[in-house]
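Hi L., both proteins are below.
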Amino acid sequence: MTFTFAAAVAWDPQGNKPVKNVSFQAYATSDTGFTTPLAITDTFGNPIVGNILNSGSQGVFPQFNQATNASVVVTDPTHTYAWTWNCVPTDAATANFINTPTTATSAAVYAHAAAITLALGAN
């Protein structure tokens, strides 16, 4: 299975600004010593060179994929910054959640669908 991580701002909470032009790598959440960077790919499945995410001139990481971890820690070489990211839910996971009759989301989705159906039927 491949896990997708959405593009995000590399944010410095102390400086209250984006972290620009810094290289980062992703690690398993269990790799607390940051010893083994995870292999990551772009959205087309192409390996990202050196498994490096660069925050760029705007301080934004690109979207990326990782094959084995649904959560990763992204950190710079000096570990000044470290963020734990969770993957974007898959369509199947979202569908399963919405179709679970006991969830509030399920009720909201069904109510919205019913309202749309009524509105379309009234025309």
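That was the first. Here is the second:
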Amino acid sequence: MVSARFKECLLDVYLSVYAAEAVFEVMLVRAQDGEQRYILSTLLQAETEAKVVMRPLLTRLGLPITDSEGTSVGGAAAANQLSSLPWTDRFDALGDMIRATYLPRYLELATLVTPEEDAEAAAIARFMGEHEQAVLQVADNVVQGVPDPAAPLAALLHFPLVRPTLM
């Protein structure tokens, strides 16, 4: 049996995924070339897959799987602000947000449940921490000019996208 604190954190992480999905969707519309589209599409794909991974657990725990808090709207507003920045500055700001707000919450999730309490919940909690660390790595890679900056996140995807240079 998972704790109420775990359920609260799980729902918070799930709604954060909704917000991130909205951010990357808005940013994707404004991508200027194939590489930018690939990076943003990979980020969007990762958020979509994260929702899919979390939904069976959420429903089993009696938690909503809809954006009942309207976080997508807030995510879209944040994306508009980020999109006004130059490409690398967007990812610098995104990395700062992830480090300050999202990554600590995602990592906290794994501390609130053990495999003995609920093996599925513990596995998903661990995965979500890995997911957010990979999103942060993409942001850092873009800022640092690393070739194939989305590779760490693409490696986690069940349905990875094809890089434009490989098409």
